[in-house]
Amino acid sequence: MTRDSRNLDGPFAFDSERLASQAEIGTRNATDIGQPGPEWRQEVEVLRATVQDYALAHDTLLAEIHRLRQENRSLRDQLDAAQVKIVQLARQVFGRKSERQDASATSPESGGAVPDGASPNPESVPSPTEESTTTTPAARPQRSRGQQPGQPGHGRRRHPDLPTDHVFLTLSEAEQRCPRCGLYAQKDGMETSEQLDFVVEIRRKVYHRQRYRRICTCPSETPTGAEAPAATDVPATTEATVAPEASAVTEEEAVTEVPVASPAPAATDVPVTTKATVTPEAPAVAEEAAGIGAPATPESSAAPEAPVVNRPTTPRTFTAPLPLNVIPRGLFTINFLVQLLAWKYGAGVPLHRLRKFWAWQGAAIAAGTLVGALQALVPVLEPLYQAILAFNREEPWWHADETHWKVFIDYEGKVGHRWWIWVFIGPRSTVYVLSSTRSAAVPKAHLQSPPPPAEDDPTPTPGDAAPPWLNKLLLTDFYSAYRAMFDGLLHAWCWAHIRRKVLAAGEAVPALAAWSQAWIARIARLYALHAARAAARPQSAAWQEADQALRRWVQDTAAVWQRELADPTMADQAHKVLATIQRQWEGLILFLDHLEIPLDNNEAERAARTAVMGRKNYYGSRAEWSGKLAAMLWTVWMTAIQNGRDPLAYLTAYFTAYAQNGHQPLSSAALAAFLPQPTATANATEGTG
Predict the structure, then answer these.
(1) Cα(42)–Cα(30) distance, rounded to whole angstroms?
(2) DSSP H/E element including 212
(3) At CA 608, angle to CA 355 and CA 484, rounded to 5?
(4) What is the pLDDT of residue 447?
(5) DSSP code, position 407
(6) Are 381 and 629 spatial neighbours (Cβ–Cβ below 8 Å)?
(7) Higher model confidence: residue 687 or residue 78?
(8) 495-508 vs 37-94: helix axis angle to the nearest 10?
(9) Is-contact 435 443, C-beta < 8 A?
(10) Cis bond leading into 453, ω under 30°?
C-alpha cells in the first residue's frame, strides 16, 4: 500500500511527506531566529514520531477501505445473482408455463421490443423488406380458443370406431294406452340418440379345462428303440378316422379343442386337437387309423414288418392348455398387465391410487402382488429395451436432457438418494437411461460402440470400425457434462436456453429491459426464418430466398453481440449472456448447414416431463429394478408413439410373442418386428421449434 494518498478526496486526503517537510522547515526557522535549539529539536522529533504514527494509521485505513470496497463489490454481485435467481424461481412457480409472448412483446413495430421510448440499434430490428418475405407467428392476429362467435359449428362429434351397445327402450303396456279411450298406440318408427359411457370393471376369468381319458388300448409310450418326439415336432392338429369296416359300429368320440395361437404343449400334453373314433370290435383299425402304433391283431403278423417310426403319444388323461400369459402361472392376464403399465408409467398414476380405484370396483389387490408382477416383467422387457438402445445409438443425431429421480436405496460411497433419468431422442426412437450419476460418463457410455461380443460369439468385430457418434450431432442445453463429449461429435446448442437467459437478465435488472426485448424480438425473427425455410421445398426459389435471409440474420446478429460485448457500460448480467453466445456461437449456428435439426432442445425437455410427472406422483423408486423398469417402459412407450403405433397394442403384441416363444427372449429377427422400420416417417422432432 503506497503512502501517497493525494488522489483521495474528503477526510482521507492526507500527505505525510508534505507534513514532515513542513515540520523540518519550522525547525530550521526556529534555529535561525535564535530560539533554543535542543528543546525545539526534541519537540520536532516527537512531532515526527506522531506523523509516522498517523501515516501508519492512514495506511491501515486505506487498506481497510480497499477491502471494504472489494467486499461491497462482491456482495453486490451476489445480490444481483440472487435477484436473478429469485426472478427465475418466481417465474417457475408463479409465472406462465408457456414461453409464448403476445405480439406486443415481440414485435418491434408495436413498441414491445423497445419499451420506454428507447431507440434500438438499427441492426437489432429486421428490415421491412425482410419482414415482407415471411410472416412471423407473432404477426398473425390472435383469436380466442374454442368456437368462434358467428361461425358454424361442426356439430356433435361421432365415435363410430368405439364398441357400441344398442339399447332398445320401450314403454310398458299401460303407458302405451290412451289415457281416455284405452286404445293401444301404434308403433311409428324409431328415434335414435347416443351417449358416451365410461365402463371400468375388473373381471375374474375362471378357466374350466375339460379333462379327457382315452378309452383305446393304445400304448402310452413310444415303441422300444424309438425316441420320444420333441414338443415342437408334434402336429398342432391330429384327426383320426375309422375304417369303413367299423362305420356301422357304435361310435364314442373324445374331442379337445384349443385356440391355434396356443403354444405347443409338452410331450405329455399332445396332441393339441385330437379327434378319435374308437370301436371295441376294431381296436386295431382304430389304432392304425390314428397313427399311434402298429396293429396288434394276429392277422397283422403276416403282413410285411413295418419300420419303427416316431409317432406322437398321449397320456391316458389330458386337458386343454391354458391361454397365453406373459408371466407363467401368473394371476394377471396380458391385458391386465398392459393396462397396469399404461396407468402407472403412461399416465403417472401411483399404485396406491390404482388399488383404491380397483377396490371401489370390488377388487382388493395387495400391493405386494402388483409389485411382484411388475418385477417379473423386468427380464421380459430387457431384450426389447436393449434392442431400442442399439437402434437409438445408430441414429444420425440426438436430443439429450436429464432430470433427477429418487431411488430410495443406500449404496456404499453414494450420499443421498438422488439419481438421474437421461433422455436421448433420435428421429425415430426415444431412450431413457437410469443412472446414479450426472456426469458425462452417461452420455458417453450410451453413444459409444456396444461392448465386444463374448468369446463364443462367432460374429467378428472389426477393430478399426468408426465409432457410432463420429460426425453425428448432439443437441443439448449448456450443462457442462455435454461440453465434455467426444472429439468428432458435432454439438448444437439450444436457442431456447439463450432466450431464457436473456429474459432472466431483463427481469432481474430493469435497466436491461430494452436490451432484453430487442434480443427477444431478434430470436423470434430467427424462429420465423427457420420455419419459413423448413416449409419450403428444398432447393426451390422460395427455399433459396429463405436460406439467404437466415444467413443474413446470422451475420447481423454476430455483429450485434460483438459490438455489445465490447461495450464497457454493459451490465454484468447482459455481459454474461453475451459471453455465452460468443463461446457457443459455432454450435448455435449449426442449423444453417444441418437442415434436419431444430433450433432448440424442447423436444427432450417435453420427453423428460414423463419422468417428472412420475417423480411428483409417486416420488421415485424403492429399488433399482423399479427405476430401471420405469426407464424401460418409457422407452418402449415413447418409441411406439414416435412411430405412430398404439402403445397398448404394441405392448400386447410383444408380450404375446414372448409367451408364444415359450417365455424365452425373442431372437434378433423376431425383435426386428418391434423396432422402427426403415420406411417409417421421421418423427415430429425433425424441424420442430
Answers:
(1) 13
(2) strand 211-213
(3) 140
(4) 87
(5) B
(6) yes
(7) 78
(8) 130
(9) no
(10) no
